[in-house]
Amino acid sequence: MALTGIEIFKKLPKTNCGECGVPTCLAFAMKLAAGQAELASCPHVSEEAKAELAEASAPPIRPVKIGVGDEAVTVGGETVLFRHEKTFVNSPGIAILISDTMEDGEVEARVKKLDELEYERVGLVLRANLAALKCESGDSAKFEALVKKVAAGTKKPLILICETPDVMASAVKACADNKPLLYPATKDNADVMATLAKDNSCPLAVRAENLGDAPDLTERLTKAGVKDLVIDPGSRSLRQAFEDEIAVRRAALMKKFRPLGYPTIVFPCEMTDDRMEETLIAATFIAKYAGVIVLSDLTRETLFPLLLARMNIFSDPQRPMATKEGIYEVGGPSEESPVVLTCNFSLTYFIVMGEIESSRVPAWLLVKDTEGLSVMTAWAAGKFVADAIAPFVQKCGIADKVNHKKIVIPGYAAAISGELEEELPGWEVQIGPREAAHLPAFLKQWKA
């Protein structure tokens, strides 16, 4: 059972050193009890206290890792109901369903889509994450062959879907080093599936007949020694599955109910035969609150909006997305190319970069660190002003790359032009357009 803040406080060193980022040990204990801090943040806590506080300091929803290496997917680990409270931690894994009754060509095509369908957005590469391999034939040899084929064709983590333990056992042996997620453990096969999961150090997903039965299954498996669990409440209608997802998250976070403190898996592919409806259902569970989402197939027109929604929901609302400060070459600039200045808010950077590229005018793009704020916001906050920009321009080395001293600033920052010229002796400050869309026309008329 989770400890209260006062109980945790009694086990802390009570130095009030502030090194954990919280002014007092009591305040830190309260945050720890609420799942808003990590015990590792306290540098003075004893090993004995660490052991005693392990339950209290653990995330209310256990993080579960599927797969190995750089492609591994971690789900769970969440500490809040709403992203504005803090942030969501691990975005849901999106899986494509592949059956052992499919022709080899179809299997290869799906693996190819899983590996090749990706999109770059504000500096991030967005892609699906997992292959869900389903035994529909009931044939152990066929399922094992499918697992071997897919494991050899992709480094993406696998989900093995088979209810028959003997068939699952042979499939697991074919890819045990990849640490796949095994699904499903039911009330009838839980003991055998638990042994398979433990022997191969794999995470295990339970499938309950309904949400009320899930805690009994997870407790049964944890007593058997399986700690990394994923929950399928068994619901296959949008309304019931939606209600179950919210119930699981609230029970884990608000009630500290450990038997439901695990990530979940949902199957939009089993809720409808309509691809567009399936996409809408998947979008619902990206927001509320699936850990793994299994789709019947991946297509560009359905996958991209899901990836974009996932990126937006799982970005940190308290930290603007920022690009590294520095000099960026666009189109192979020369000594006579224009020098354009902007902020390091990622969206602004990529829009400006794209417009310069579309102009086909090679240019030097100076990106000033504004802590991820846009031009107008950074100017208002005193982070995109003359006495901040001038030292950056002088030290970044751009003067050694061009044979002129002209710099183009955003039109929204026109008010700083005079002061910036005073701070940059010998430089001519030119006011660019207010909107990035007008940059191509402006640059085509620019002269050194």
Q: Beta fraction of the residues?
A: 15-25%
> Which superfamily, in CATH terms, is the homologous superfamily of the largest domain?
Dihydropteroate synthase-like
How would you sum up the major sheet?
A: 8 strands, parallel
In CATH, what is the class of the largest domain? Alpha Beta
C-alpha Rg (nearest Å): 27 Å
SSE map:
Blueprint: H1 5-11, H2 25-33, H3 47-52, H4 54-57, E1 64-66, E2 73-75, E3 93-99, H5 104-116, E4 118-121, E5 124-127, E6 130-134, H6 140-153, E7 158-161, H7 165-175, E8 181-185, H8 190-200, E9 204-207, H9 214-223, E10 229-232, H10 238-254, E11 265-266, H11 275-287, E12 292-295, H12 300-314, E13 326-330, E14 339-343, H13 346-359, E15 363-368, H14 375-380, H15 386-396, E16 406-409, H16 417-423, E17 428-431, H17 439-444
Helix pairs in contact: 1-2, 6-7, 7-8, 11-12, 15-16
Task: Describe what is shown at a glance.
Helix content is 39%, strand content 16%. The protein is α/β, with parallel strands linked by helices and 448 residues long.
Describe this structure in words.
The protein starts with a helix and ends with a helix. It is 39% helix and 16% strand. Helix 7 packs parallel to helix 8 (190-200). The chain has helices spanning 5-11, 25-33, 47-52, 54-57, 104-116, 140-153, 165-175, 190-200, 214-223, 238-254, 275-287, 300-314, 346-359, 375-380, 386-396, 417-423, 439-444, and strands at 64-66, 73-75, 93-99, 118-121, 124-127, 130-134, 158-161, 181-185, 204-207, 229-232, 265-266, 292-295, 326-330, 339-343, 363-368, 406-409, 428-431. Strand 4 and strand 5 form a beta hairpin. The strands form 5 sheets. An 8-stranded parallel β-sheet has the order 10-9-8-7-6-3-12-11, with helices on one face. The relative contact order is 0.08. By secondary structure, it is of the alpha/beta class. It contains 17 helices and 17 strands. The protein has 3 domains: 5-57, Orthogonal Bundle (3-methyladenine DNA Glycosylase II, Chain A, domain 3), CATH 1.10.15; 64-314, Dihydropteroate synthase-like (TIM Barrel, Alpha-Beta Barrel), CATH 3.20.20; 326-444, Rossmann fold. The model has no long low-confidence stretch (mean pLDDT 93).
